[in-house]
């Protein structure tokens, strides 16, 4: 279908796949995917900790850098999801590294000042058992907007457990109803915006 949409997510748990219990961030993103798939969106993801994303602020930091291949998947999708846990009230260090690598987009605009992600829609999923979801969203959304992604209305999907408690999102029997409702609204708004931008791209500075 000409209007079919695709989504790609990077999940930013600090643990590699197979280390300890399954990632709550990964599960949260899968639940976000469920809501997007209900709108016919095809979804794929990568677990960032399983890849060698070198430090730096270019799109290719040379030998051994896995970012160029991940970058290609980010830009091939209509919708990008960044999933991160909260550590010490902050996005994970892996999440911050991904945003740092996206800094390269600032210098890669075309002759009409259009950066590579222009016309792509971004969501951020946040999980943690401490405070800081809104601050984490603010930091991530600001960075994603700076490099050209468009943020839909009501896009703040998150779950935080009781402060100073050991319960993780993955420990829940099912997502709380309010979290599911938030994901449903975010998915509907994201798909609407992505279709609008796909059919009527931003003009750039010309």
Overall description:
- The chain has helices at 24-37, 67-76, 93-102, 133-146, 177-199, and strands at 6-11, 42-47, 79-87, 90-91, 121-128, 156-160.
- It is an alpha/beta fold and 206 residues long.
- It has a single domain, classed as Rossmann fold (3-Layer(aba) Sandwich), CATH 3.40.50.
- Strands 1, 2, 3, 4, 5 and 6 form a six-stranded mixed sheet that branches.
- Helix 1 (24-37) crosses helix 5 (177-199).
- The protein is globular.
- It comes from Pseudoroseicyclus tamaricis.
- This is Flavodoxin family protein.
Brief summary of the model shown:
This protein is of the alpha/beta class and 206 residues long. The protein has 5 helices and 6 strands, in the order βαβαββαβαβα. It has one domain: Rossmann fold, CATH 3.40.50.360.
């Amino acid at each position: 279908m000409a209007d079919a949409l695709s989504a790609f997510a990077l999940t930013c748990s600090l643990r590699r796949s197979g280390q300890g219990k399954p990632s709550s961030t990964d599960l949260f993103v899968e639940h976000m995917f469920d809501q997007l798939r209900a709108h016919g969106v095809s979804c794929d993801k990568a677990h960032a900790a399983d890849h060698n994303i070198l430090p730096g602020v270019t799109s290719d930091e040379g030998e051994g850098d896995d970012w160029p291949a991940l970058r290609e998947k980010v830009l091939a999708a209509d919708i990008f999801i960044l999933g991160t846990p909260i550590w010490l009230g902050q996005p994970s260090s892996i999440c911050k590294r991904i945003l740092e690598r996206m800094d390269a987009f600032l210098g890669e605009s075309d002759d009409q000042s259009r950066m590579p992600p222009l016309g792509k829609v971004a969501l951020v999923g946040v999980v943690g058992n401490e405070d800081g979801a809104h601050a984490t969203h603010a930091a991530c959304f600001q960075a994603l907007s700076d490099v050209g992604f468009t943020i839909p209305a009501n896009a703040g999907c998150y779950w935080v457990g009781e402060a100073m408690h050991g319960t993780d999102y993955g420990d829940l029997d099912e997502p709380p109803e309010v979290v599911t409702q938030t994901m449903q609204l975010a998915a509907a708004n994201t798909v609407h915006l992505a279709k609008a931008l796909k059919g009527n791209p931003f003009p750039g500075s010309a």
